[in-house]
Amino acid sequence: SFVKASVPVGLSAFVPFSRVRGANDDIRVAVVGLNNQGANHINWFREIPGVRVAAICDADRACLDRERQKFAQRNEPVETYIDYRRLLDDKGIDAVIIAMPNHWHALATVWACQAGKDVYVEKPVSHDIWEGRQMVRAARKHGRIVQSGMQRRSDTGLIEALDFIRAGHLGTMQIVYGIVYVRRDSIGNVDGPQPIPDSVDYDLWCGPAPKEPLRRKRLHYDWHWVWPTGNGDFGNNGIHFIDICRWFIGAEQLAPRVISIGGRLGYIDDGETPNTQIVFCDYKPVPILFEVRGLPRAKDDPAMDVFRGTRAGTVVVCEGGYFVGGWAYDNEGKRIRQFQRTGGAGHQANFIEAVRSRKVADLNADVLDGHLSSALCHMGNVSHRVGRRASLEQVRRAVAGNAYLTESVERLEQHIRANEVDLETTPLILGADLAMDPKREVFTGPLSEQANRLVRRDYREPFVVPEIT
After folding, report:
1. What is the pLDDT of residues 113-127, one digit of tens each?
2. pTM for the complete prediction?
3. CA 311 to CA 314: how far, in whole Å?
């Protein structure tokens, strides 16, 4: 049953608060989640004029102490928090920068909006489809500025390329590929529950996720590869590029159909998410085909595969040519025009500009875009999770009517053989061919009952994402 409200204990009953600021007042931000990207955000936001990193927060005291010492060395004051709820009680904080693990993103964002604070939330913005929509509703209901950490939306070269393609210089768009060929080694195996580091408040770290024994070697980072906390590399790296795919085709809702093909191939470890995956999002008239590969181009070869000149990027295929990286090419591979890529520098500054203007339209990656693109990753993963083990021949037959998928599966088969993968030991999963109702954001048709169980997770009290109405 839907939860109608969620008020975390000790949060001043969530009385909304927005500190009155003049145009020249400092924006006081707090960075939450310091183990990886959060430490980078401290540096990025410190460099923006008129911004002060006033607080930091992490459930791991070791991470908190490491960053606190850096502030002390710079003679910069900073408040420190272990419990995020205590931070939200701090009325001197204008905005929170959320770099916690994926399973915390939605709840942390909703709570911040309810507390009257603006939000910059890392990608993917959500852990499942339903909670992403609640984030959008919370931002609108409470009048908050919420930026998604999809920084390539601030890449001026990409913006120029988008305008160039939409002006018809390469002809009609036909298909857009997203590519993430990034090496992912095995995370190993353990033979039982592992000790939680003494520095970690494990209850707070788990938050909305089940508080289960740790059954992998590393608590940090490897949470990406288990379903209760992560979304695999499709949701980790892939979100950047599927967002660009959706941006370029101009899709403003979820894909009407999705299918995934893949598996955790080449090794048996404590991870659950695919390291190899094809996801087809059947937008009309221009579909998206995404490929994830965590194995190298061949066994014992340190290099990765390349698709049309990229190992991690977007390939926009048009009638008269294609765009990849920073170049537009004709169909013979001749360079037509270069676009100076900036990698999204200035994305954090764009957030601060919108915080000052109070205009959602000033954001380069509003939370609605973050929700839709993250949900495409979730759709692909749901297809995988309700799929079935299949042979390559069964996969070939399943995609025989789709020329794009057939070609992708042929290349996947070559990749599997080059890595000498034993599909009896680490099998392929033929995901369910799922239909989506883009307006209601629920699956329909065959296997929809199983799929919709994964649209919204079961939350652990009191860490419950509320339904926002």
Report:
1. 999 999 999 999 999
2. 0.95
3. 9
